[in-house]
Amino acid sequence: MLEVKGLRKVYRTGTREVEALRDLTFTVENGDLVCLVGPSGCGKTTLLRCVSGLLDPTSGDVRVDGKAVDGPPPGMAVVFQEYGRSLFPWMNVRDNVELPLKQKKVAKARRAELVEQSLDAVGLTGSESAYPWQLSGGMQQRVAIARAVAYEPQTLLMDEPFAAVDAQTRADLEDLVRQLWKRLGVTILFVTHDIDESVYLGQRVVMLSSSPTVVQDELIIDLPEARDQLTTRADPAFIALRTRVYEQIQAAKRNAGQ
Amino acid sequence: MTTARRGSSVQAGNPVLLGVAGLAGLLLILELVPRLGLVDEKYLPPTSTIAAALADEAGDPAFWTALSDTLVAWAIGLAIAVGAGVLAGLVIGSVPVLRALTASTIEFLRPIPSVALIPLAVLMFGTAIESTLLLVVYASFWQVLVQVLYGVADVDPVAFETARSFRFSAWARIRHVLWPTALPYVFTGVRLAASVALVLAITAELVIGSPGLGQAIAVAQSSDAVPTMYALVVVTGILGVLINLLARTGERRLLAWHQSVRGEVTV
Ligand SMILES: Nc1ncnc2c1ncn2[C@@H]1O[C@H](COP(=O)(O)OP(=O)(O)O)[C@@H](O)[C@H]1O
Ligand SMILES: [Mg+2]
């Protein structure tokens, strides 16, 4: 279980202070797929960096299975928005996926197996020897997802992973995430600014206000488990849910404006 | 269409051919100028005379000893400078406190011309090869250090955080993120240092009289063997070109990925 309690983060640069997060509290049960949605600049990346132990919060705490996070916890993998910079350009696809496994001291035979399985799962079999910069944006993000999946994490954090890919690729990758989640039983915290995406993907959506950021509302997404880009998005229940989320985010903006 | 293409190819020409033609032209002029009496042959012998002197040198074992002395001083000096520069650069660059602490010192020491250390070198090592080494190492070290510092500063924070999030050890972060990022800069540093090292090796030999081509040039000059002096100068020039060529080829071979990445817009 992932618990975020009273999380606050203030960036200090010289004399300037930016309160990126004011007070965030929410939990994600093991095996859940929770989407965090909020406007650009509301501190989503800051939150993920605190959760993944890359950044120390100013106050409040983050716990994974009851253990306080200070530094990147084992069993957690992050997929960054900037896939082009997150992959290592001096390594081919196979080495990129394999390197974290080597660091984790996974035996060689098992590494080869995991690399193959995960590249297969994201539909990249045959691209092992390509370098990241030889691939399209969508394929690069698939490599980053494969790298995270091969790591066999209990928790997967994704920071607006599809914000920079085209709409068609994005739809495919959304379905890929749902499919991997169901198959691997991994806990996913998926951050996005896209309301439709959060409703389409999540079992639950946590809405963030704009800065200074608090949790505005939470919503259970009671759509059928099997989701489909066409029928789900046309479902009146989907439309009602996305309207709810949209209204909350608008309300948050009004409150912030006052 | 065809005419246009032919026209443009005539305009651009073949750069290699043009380069060779230009060099041949220069050599011809250098042959003619003294022969026509425009310059005293005593100071500028014709190309053919220099070529003959060069052939003589090639048959003289003393020349080969001098050449090897210069190359040994160059290679050892460069190796020390590269090793020390890379090590210091990685350590200083990855520890922000050290970086701030050393910044002004580096800016002070770096611009000191290596030749200003000649008296010190003579004092410490006399005319031994160590004198040459001191100057070579001092001059080349900064070239490498500064480039490595640029390289370390160029590490992508996202790549670095990726490594951290996958719990890479400190050593693995240096080995797999810092080092590959800095490598193109290291190459630039080595290439610059290789040229500077040659200049300083020759200078030291020339001025201090430590063994090598520089000393041979000084000896030729003082014994009035002007064509030999020119022949030796030509050899140093050829060395410079070869060293640069070697460094560039190595750079291209080993950094294929970098060449391809450079032009690309990162997301
Ligand atoms: N390293 C930093 N130093 C100072 N301010 C920062 C830093 N990172 C982010 N911020 C600020 O914190 C706020 C939240 O940023 P971020 O977490 O990137 O938002 P989001 O991911 O939701 O777009 C922004 O106002 C941003 O300018
Ligand atoms: Mg962000």
Automatic annotation (TrEMBL), chain A:
InterPro entries: AAA+_ATPase, ABC_transporter-like_ATP-bd, ABC_transporter-like_CS, ABC_transporter_ATP-bind, P-loop_NTPase. Residues 2-235 form the ABC transporter domain. It comes from Actinoplanes italicus. This is NitT/TauT family transport system ATP-binding protein. One of its GO terms (molecular function) is ATP binding. SMART domains: AAA. It comes from the Bacteria. CDD domains: ABC_NrtD_SsuB_transporters. PROSITE patterns: ABC_TRANSPORTER_1, ABC_TRANSPORTER_2. Keywords: ATP-binding, Nucleotide-binding, Transport.
Automatic annotation (TrEMBL), chain B:
One of its GO terms (biological process) is transmembrane transport. One of its GO terms (cellular component) is plasma membrane. The keyword Phosphoprotein does not apply. It is a multi-pass membrane protein. The chain crosses the membrane at residues 12-33, 71-96, 108-129, 135-156, 177-208, 228-247. It is found in: Cell membrane. InterPro entries: MetI-like (IPR000515), MetI-like_sf (IPR035906). Residues 67-247 form the ABC transmembrane type-1 domain. Gene3D superfamilies: MetI-like. Keywords: Cell membrane, Membrane, Transmembrane, Transmembrane helix, Transport. Belongs to the binding-protein-dependent transport system permease family. This is ABC-type nitrate/sulfonate/bicarbonate transport system permease component. The lineage of its organism: Bacteria, Bacillati, Actinomycetota, Actinomycetes, Micromonosporales.
